Amino acid sequence: MNFCDLAEALGGYPGLSRALTWKDVDKYIRFARRLKSEIRLHLSPGLDDPPYRLPQYLHEFLRDLLGFEDLQTMQCWSALRGIIWQDGPAHLYAEEVDAFVKRGSQPSRASEKVWLLRFPVVFYSIQYGACLAYSSSLSCDGCKMRYYPNYYIMTNLRFYYGGIPDTIQFEEHGYMEKDLCEVFTNFMLVAWVSAQNGANIYNFALAANSLCRPTIWPSGLTFNLSGEQVWRAFFLNALLRDWTERGLVLVLPDSGDHDSRLKHAMDIRNHLMIEHGQPEKMHACQVCPLRAVVTDGIAIGHPCCMVHNCTRPLINNRHRFCEQHQDKNLDCVVTDCDAKAEPGHRTCSNSSHRELEEFRNQRGKAFFQLRDRLKRFNISQISDSLGGDDSLPELARFGRRRTHNEQLVVCCCGIIAARSTMFGAEAISGVKDFLKSVYNHNPDDMPDVCWHDNNCRLQQHLRKTNDSFFRRVILAVDVFHFKSKHKESDKFCQKHCNPALWKVLVDKEGKWVFNSSAAEQANVWLGGYLAIVREMLPHRYNFFLDEMIKRRNERLVGHLRKSGKTPYHVPSSIDM
């Protein structure tokens, strides 16, 4: 907008030009631009030209807000609507934000059959911090549907419009800028920042300095962002992104709380990830002359059912057994005892079992007594020096069981092709089944080389069970483990797993052409999430780790492409 355009627009209303000051005109333009999204709700589908007249309630809103007369307000819109429609929302000062809070929160009727509802929300953004905003929804008396900014509700289901909106509604009275969701995601991806610490950074660095914070604040709303709100925004943003990539429309139940609503969609995504795998599971590039992967495990996990190898989820993290095995809470906690526990105790009447329980209780009391002494003398507690007491033998399980480890398949260029949770142990049979499932139980999809620190035992297992699935795969032990962990006296290992047996694993100068430590390096990265995921329930745990792996792969693929390594996907023989 320039002065000539403004003078030309006001030229047809000389009375208006004499009655209003430049400050009045500037305020009208900025306030009206702030209402453009609201005005668009009243336009016919497919049209985006400014209407000739404002809806009555918006006309009255601007009239009362600016202290204009009716005729002046109408003439301002007629003269300036083209200029107002040219640009996006204008900046408002703190006192002007207060004026918006005082007015404009009443529901109104958009037409004879459409009801418009407007209510205050918090908008979390990068540029403006945490701001007060208003969310509008439309309901139709005819079709009984209600339309919100991100979705519409029909038959008690939320149907998202498709794509990733610029502003994501992550709870009833909370909206977050998409770019801010990505900031939190990248905090987690590159620096292992928890959701709570991400919220703290935002609250201290951005929200506290918001220029759009009104002095009058609706009750029940707060500027401070919580860790749980960051999680909700993270999960919903990831779901919308994933569904968009798959060409699907995200549908969530409208009933229930936010977490149970998201859980439904997260369970679906987790199932799709199990069924189809990571997008990069068939990755190949010019880093390696052959398709080569490394498989290894890392000891992070989540609470799980105490029954060995039970994969059913806990109802919540305070439980020791899944829903199906709840009756085992009445059993004695000693591992080889089948008796019932005595009332008020965790063990049965056996005196030796009761001694274990009393020893555990006393040990816990003594620990807290010693820690209190440290506090009285202002001595810092070194967590490593006050670790678990190994004097109690592994005869009873008083606490919760945790999953054993996460098993990864990592390409030698660093791409993580697959992940799976091992519940009981990193058994050879479990590793074998995991590799088969990753590559669709199809031997032709297997890579050319598969490094594993225990490939000698894997080969023995395959020979014993007459399993020919890996017949065309080089099953070598990586160089580090072969030299330091495998005995020279192990003739089978020396004969079948020594990496020097295969000439394709070295170049003409005798140097190894594959990075057989890729899994160890990926484990270092994945291990950074230990503190973040250790108390998560399975649906969150699996979704979060899969999302982090997917994002990490995307960054690595981009780096490989820029460096001329030509990343691509090997077609699966099943699809051919």
UniProtKB/TrEMBL annotation:
This is CxC6 like cysteine cluster associated with KDZ domain-containing protein. Residues 119-205 form the CxC5 like cysteine cluster associated with KDZ domain. Pfam families: CxC5 (PF18718), CxC6 (PF18721). It comes from the Eukaryota. It comes from Jaapia argillacea MUCL 33604. Residues 294-358 form the CxC6 like cysteine cluster associated with KDZ domain.
